[in-house]
Amino acid sequence: KIIATLVQPTEGAVTVRGFDSVRDDARVRAQVGLASAEERSFYWRLNVEQNLVFFARLYGLGAASARRRIEELLELVELADLRRRRFGELSTGNKQRMAVARSLLNSPPVLLLDEPTRSLDPLAAARMREIIGSLARGPRPVTVLLTSHNLAEVEQLCERVAVISHGRIRAIDTPQHLRATHRQHERVRLTLRGLEAARAADILRGTVSHLETSGQPDETTLSFEREVGDDLLDRAVRALQYNGARVVECEPERGTLLDVLETFERETEEG
After folding, report:
1. Is the pTM of this model over 0.70?
2. The domain spanning residue 235 has which CATH number?
């Protein structure tokens, strides 16, 4: 809301493409499109198209330009078939699509999205993520700043992530780097051929910790814990191969953004 100039900062400053959100608020609003999760500014008795025409005229679009842009956006968010339906009769998910369409009316270079896939069914949410990705990677790329509690969605869409814990930004980085720097241990699963499970366990016993094994007639699966970056995996694989095993698959358990959040929560609780 501060970036969109709806609320003024109590301290500090926000700039959008060089314009200050307080001193240059009109210029900032011209650069930004906002789709809020709690949208109450649409007119419930007007239909989808009428609502978008109203807001297009507020943005200063002429009649012909507004019609062309609205047609593009209705196709983009897949609401073309509902253009004559009153806003009040739309499902929660379609109201969310309406908010996204309106935020794009003036083709803003910066797009602010508050939980854009909330209330959408899985297929519609996947389509919305495709739309967001296409906007960010299109011929005229849009800078997208989104908030979400869906961590899988964040990892899929975001090039940089800001982690907020107890009202403070605790870290800003790529998802990959955040996972790597906040994961001290990982579990590795190896799939072997040419070595029975009992023999593999004997070879690695005393070398790895929390070892688990299972065997099939022609295949052995084992897993163990290691510290990220140590040489334990290399030593284990070498020992198994020396004793006749052929490693056909190695699958480390990848850290997630949930691990990052839990780390910050523990640090806060521990003071």
Report:
1. yes
2. 3.30.70.250
